[in-house]
Amino acid sequence: MNKKLMSAALAVALGAGASLAFAQAKPEVLVKQRQAAMTLQGKYMGPLGAMAQGKAPFNAAVVARNAGYLEALSAMPWDGWDANTKDVKSATLPAAFSDTAKFKTAGDNFQAAVGKLVVASKGSDEAATKAAIGNVGKTCGGCHDDFRQKPQ
Amino acid sequence: MNKKLMSAALAVALGAGASLAFAQAKPEVLVKQRQAAMTLQGKYMGPLGAMAQGKAPFNAAVVARNAGYLEALSAMPWDGWDANTKDVKSATLPAAFSDTAKFKTAGDNFQAAVGKLVVASKGSDEAATKAAIGNVGKTCGGCHDDFRQKPQ
């Protein structure tokens, strides 16, 4: 492989984010990445909530796909979680930085509920899958209640 | 399950995004979600590029994890791709909306390269894995060259 060509291709590909590859990401970048994961959690959880509540037709294939995505997305905020993001403007409440054990537990509860949804979504029990969606929703709320500013 | 409670929990959890569950997402929301997927692609590709170029120590576990994330993230911009996002301000060039076949092919090339990286990352051939990372980088650049504004 031509390393010089590859380096150039990567620099083009990643744009301003290329520095990520070579240095500790800045707090503002970490927050942007964290928010991106939350945005996508909302994207893929929203339709499942509608299905569980009977507001949209149940679609097992979409549930299974979204559950798989949520499994990855539920982990993504954590590998970039850093105390140095405390002073970056975001919806994260100060409690996330002071009550870290409770915050981590709330995140773990979400990941565990998503894991159970992944399993349920591979079966053919619609009621069980809907219940698993509901449990994921509760763990979203359980974390947001204490650690996220209420939307204005 | 108590549907009223669950509905309330989901509304809290999803905040302003809750409307996503019940209606066609607005173009601005679709763009925000698309950008979130690109942000996270950068987050998880950046360190792999550094490893492939010898600028960071090779870490097989991180490569395998990130490759799995990239497999999901490379699909995520597409389920929300919609021509009605054409007029929303973003780095997407007009060509993405006019030369749709070429644009889709560029996206397919990226997803295929990521798929090959996932396979390589499960083996123990470091050189092959680094080559696969390089090929992913080229497909990032191949799409950005034609369909993304150059960073200012």
Oligomer: homodimer
Helix and strand sequence of chain A = HHHHHH
Total helical segments of chain A: 6
Give the low-pLDDT segments of chain A: 15-22
- What is the typical, i.e. mean, pLDDT of chain A? 89
Overall, the morphology of chain A is: elongated
The amount of beta strand of chain A, in percent, is: under 5%
| SS-based class of chain A | mainly alpha
Q: How far apart are the first and last residues' alpha carbons of chain A, in Å?
A: 52 Å
Question: How would you characterize this protein structure?
Answer:
The structure is a homodimer of 152-residue chains. With 152 residues, chain A is an all-alpha fold. Chain A contains six helices and no strands. The longest helix of chain A is centred in the first third of the chain and has 26 residues. The radius of gyration of chain A is 18 Å and the shape is elongated. The first copy, chain A, starts with a helix and ends in a 5-residue tail after the last helix. At the A-B interface, helix 1, helix 2, helix 3 and helix 6 of A face helix 1, helix 2, helix 3 and helix 6 of B.
Question: Which descriptors apply to this entry?
Answer:
homodimer; mainly alpha; 70% helix
Topology of helices and strands:
Two copies of one chain form a homodimer.
Chain A: H1 3-14, H2 27-52, H3 60-79, H4 95-98, H5 100-121, H6 126-147
Helix pairs in contact in A: 2-3, 2-6, 3-5, 5-6
Q: How would you sum up this structure in a few lines?
A:
Helices cover 70% and strands 0% of the residues of chain A.
